[in-house]
Specification:
This protein is an all-alpha fold. It is built from one helix and no strands.
């Protein structure tokens, strides 16, 4: 699903787990 991809891509900025 593209929605999941989009969320994941922004997840790095929204919730940086690194």
């Amino acid at each position: 699903m593209t929605i999941f991809r989009n969320f994941f891509e922004h997840s790095d900025r929204l919730f940086p787990l690194s």
